[in-house]
Design goal:
By secondary structure, the chain is mainly alpha-helical. The protein is built from 5 helices and no strands. The protein is about 60% helix and about 0% strand.
Length: about 70
Amino acid sequence: AARRIAQAALVPHGMTWTDAMSPARTLPYTNARKDVYLALRRHGWSLMKIGIFCGRDHTTIMNALHPKKDRTK
């Protein structure tokens, strides 16, 4: 079920799961990953569970979903 949710979130980006979960840090990839995180979060997943599923630390998920307003302060 989780893989279906993730793949549905990736359709607008035209990416596969492997593409989206690569270590690439350019905007198309980070936006695709964020949409996967959001979709899973809407289905009640915890940050920790999303991180494990996506192969990332839960703080990475947290920062993607709740970016700081101003990082210079």
